[in-house]
């Protein structure tokens, strides 16, 4: 079975407090974006994981696809599979690509082997894999809180807009980014801001990681400024960086504006 794990962006991202378990509570809106990897899982003689495309740092045995399989294998007698991942979503990029791969592995295994798991059960498998992994089970725009793994419905529809994602090929480590933050309450609540017309977001919706991450990698600030100069209604870094997105009223082609080594995705939002 072949599926296409997709990226997410954060519409606003506030780190509100440090938790006793060492993680942080956050508030954000996760929104799916169709920059996708390709994930194929087929029954095989023995378990195997392979990947092509962008090189994934770390031991392949710790890949979130492999971890998801072994986590589910503990509770269900899954036959061995070969998992192949073709990676196109940039890594360490604030797009949650690894988490999407883990979550989609859970969904594919559920379908392939008729496990009959419902959404909350699949979310429970996803949570230990990564804080934003559970989001990719439902994979719909959602207000999130807690570690980023608790959800409430939110009415945000960006389907009329065009989005541009620009990644400068800078890898930002998530733990390192959290370590640079002093938690605080947001000045404006995410839900209230997102209920306003998008033209207001520039003044009320922000990402707490931007200050410290942009201080270390000024190219991220430059991309955001360029997207606004190109007419973006709203632009922000996603997650803990390094990708910046711009939301435009109409279709916009930014190829040629940024250096050729930058990775760019442009398209409509769902
Ligand atoms: C920052 C966010 C915002 O959406 O996105 P990305 O930049 O990764 O896309 C997420 O919170 C990233 O979630 P995820 O990438 O799943 O992180 P995890 O693997 O769970 O955690 C990596 C490390 O980040 C820190 N961490 C993560 C989540 C959280 N709520 N508090 C934390 O302090 C911890 O130090 C943890 O060891
Ligand atoms: N399938 C995967 N794709 C990408 N990274 C993965 C994957 N599995 C494990 N990882 C690990 O997760 C780290 C980054 O995860 P990723 O979700 O891409 O970051 P971000 O959320 O910042 O975009 C990498 O350093 C890598 O070691």
TrEMBL record:
<keyword id="KW-0808">Transferase</keyword>
<comment type="similarity">
    <text>Belongs to the GHMP kinase family. IspE subfamily.</text>
</comment>
<dbReference type="GO" id="GO:0005524">
    <property type="term" value="F:ATP binding"/>
</dbReference>
<keyword id="KW-0547">Nucleotide-binding</keyword>
<keyword id="KW-0414">Isoprene biosynthesis</keyword>
<dbReference type="InterPro" id="IPR004424">
    <property type="entry name" value="IspE"/>
</dbReference>
<feature type="active site">
    <location>
        <position position="132"/>
    </location>
</feature>
<dbReference type="GO" id="GO:0016114">
    <property type="term" value="P:terpenoid biosynthetic process"/>
</dbReference>
<protein>
    <recommendedName>
        <fullName>4-diphosphocytidyl-2-C-methyl-D-erythritol kinase</fullName>
        <ecNumber>2.7.1.148</ecNumber>
    </recommendedName>
</protein>
<feature type="domain" description="GHMP kinase C-terminal">
    <location>
        <begin position="215"/>
        <end position="254"/>
    </location>
</feature>
<feature type="binding site">
    <location>
        <begin position="90"/>
        <end position="100"/>
    </location>
    <ligand>
        <name>ATP</name>
    </ligand>
</feature>
<dbReference type="InterPro" id="IPR036554">
    <property type="entry name" value="GHMP_kinase_C_sf"/>
</dbReference>
<dbReference type="InterPro" id="IPR006204">
    <property type="entry name" value="GHMP_kinase_N_dom"/>
</dbReference>
<feature type="domain" description="GHMP kinase N-terminal">
    <location>
        <begin position="63"/>
        <end position="137"/>
    </location>
</feature>
<dbReference type="InterPro" id="IPR014721">
    <property type="entry name" value="Ribsml_uS5_D2-typ_fold_subgr"/>
</dbReference>
<feature type="active site">
    <location>
        <position position="8"/>
    </location>
</feature>
<dbReference type="Pfam" id="PF08544">
    <property type="entry name" value="GHMP_kinases_C"/>
</dbReference>
<keyword id="KW-0067">ATP-binding</keyword>
<dbReference type="InterPro" id="IPR013750">
    <property type="entry name" value="GHMP_kinase_C_dom"/>
</dbReference>
<dbReference type="InterPro" id="IPR020568">
    <property type="entry name" value="Ribosomal_Su5_D2-typ_SF"/>
</dbReference>
<dbReference type="Pfam" id="PF00288">
    <property type="entry name" value="GHMP_kinases_N"/>
</dbReference>
<keyword id="KW-0418">Kinase</keyword>
<comment type="function">
    <text>Catalyzes the phosphorylation of the position 2 hydroxy group of 4-diphosphocytidyl-2C-methyl-D-erythritol.</text>
</comment>
<comment type="pathway">
    <text>Isoprenoid biosynthesis; isopentenyl diphosphate biosynthesis via DXP pathway; isopentenyl diphosphate from 1-deoxy-D-xylulose 5-phosphate: step 3/6.</text>
</comment>
<dbReference type="GO" id="GO:0019288">
    <property type="term" value="P:isopentenyl diphosphate biosynthetic process, methylerythritol 4-phosphate pathway"/>
</dbReference>
<dbReference type="GO" id="GO:0050515">
    <property type="term" value="F:4-(cytidine 5'-diphospho)-2-C-methyl-D-erythritol kinase activity"/>
</dbReference>
């Amino acid at each position: 079975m072949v599926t296409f794990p997709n990226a997410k962006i954060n519409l606003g991202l506030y780190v509100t407090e440090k938790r006793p378990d060492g993680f942080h509570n956050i508030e954000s809106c996760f929104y799916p974006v169709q920059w996708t990897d390709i994930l194929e899982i087929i029954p095989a003689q023995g378990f195997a994981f392979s990947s092509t495309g962008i090189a994934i740092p770390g031991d392949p045995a710790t890949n979130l696809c492999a971890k998801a399989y072994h986590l589910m294998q503990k509770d269900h007698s899954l036959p061995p599979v070969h998992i192949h991942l073709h990676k196109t979503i940039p890594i360490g990029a604030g797009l949650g690509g690894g988490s999407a791969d883990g979550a989609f592995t859970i969904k594919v295994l559920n379908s392939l082997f008729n496990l009959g798991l419902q959404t909350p059960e699949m979310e429970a498998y996803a949570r230990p894999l990564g804080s934003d992994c559970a989001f990719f089970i439902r994979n719909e725009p959602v207000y999130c809180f807690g570690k980023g793994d608790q959800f409430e419905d939110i009415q945000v529809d960006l389907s009329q807009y065009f989005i541009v994602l620009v990644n400068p090929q800078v890898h930002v480590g998530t733990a390192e980014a959290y370590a640079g933050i002093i938690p605080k309450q947001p000045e404006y609540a995410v839900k209230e801001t997102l209920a306003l017309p998008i033209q207001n977001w520039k003044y009320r919706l922000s990402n707490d990681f931007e200050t410290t991450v942009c201080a270390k990698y000024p190219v991220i600030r430059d991309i955001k400024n360029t997207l606004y100069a190109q007419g973006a209604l709203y632009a922000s870094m996603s997650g803990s960086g390094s990708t910046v997105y711009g939301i435009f009223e109409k279709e916009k082609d930014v190829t040629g504006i940024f250096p050729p080594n930058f990775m760019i995705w442009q398209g409509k939002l769902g």
